[in-house]
Amino acid sequence: MTVRKEIFVKIKTILEQIPEIELVDLQRKQFSAPQDGAPTYNTAALVELKSMSWGSIMGQKQEGTATVDVVLYVKNGWSGQNGVTNHDDFDLVEIDLHEKIIKRLQSLKGDAFKPIQLTAETAEEAVNEMMCYRLAFTTDVYRDLSLVYTNRLLDNHPVITVT
Fold first, then answer.
1. Within 13 Å of residue 96, how many CA atoms lie on the same side as its CB?
2. Bridge partners, 113 (sequence order)
3. CA–CA separation, 37 and 136 (whole Å)
4. How much is the average pLDDT of 112-124?
5. CA 51, CA 53: separation in Å to the nearest integer?
6. Closest to 31 measured CA to CA, from 19, 45, 50, 13
7. d(CA 55, CA 142)
8. Which of these, 88, 78, 102, lies nearest to 20 by C-alpha position?
């Protein structure tokens, strides 16, 4: 499994355990176009694998940094329709959901990445009646490289050759 795929699968698995989130998917700009005839969701968390930069090589492993955003979409007024999340005080239940996502993802780690850390939280302009919140995370990532050199014997003397 690639590093990107492992990060996405682990984040998706954690977010699917939050019952208030109806859709967890890879960010494919699902909410940027009009929603005519498409399923309507009250809440969605879309995972956007922003960037991955690779740096130094240690042995046969390369290390780098990855930036991953979780974009939370919440339909305006959805909490009033959902009895288990109804907050009459200010109708800002998305703040609780926002915090729940951060708490579950903070320090998530995998085989190819170290614990992820929250680096930024921003509210964005509403899209198709959906409030939009972006949570940015970073993590150190690692990947195995193909062998560049191989050891072989040449006249009973070890020689390193480039493959």
1. 13
2. 141
3. 31
4. 93
5. 7
6. 45
7. 10
8. 78
Q: Which residue has the tokens 């009895």?
A: 83
Helix or strand (DSSP H, E) at 102:
helix 93-105
81: pLDDT strictly greater than 50: no
**Spatial distance between the Cα atoms of 140 and 132, rounded to a whole number of angstroms:** 27
Reported as a single tens digit per residue, the pLDDT across 60-80 is 788 999 999 999 988 865 555
Which amino acid, 159? V
pLDDT score for 149: 62
In contact, 16 and 43? CB cutoff 8 Å? no
**Amino acid identity of 115?**
P
d(CA 123, CA 101): 15
For 30-43, write each residue's pLDDT tens digit.
877 666 655 577 88
CA 89, 46, 111, 119 dihedral sign is: negative
8 Å CB contact between 113 and 3: yes
* Separation in Å, CA 122 to CA 46, 98, 132, 153: 15, 11, 9, 59
Beta carbons of 146 and 159 less than 8 angstroms apart: no
Instruction: Give the type of residue at 49.
Output: L
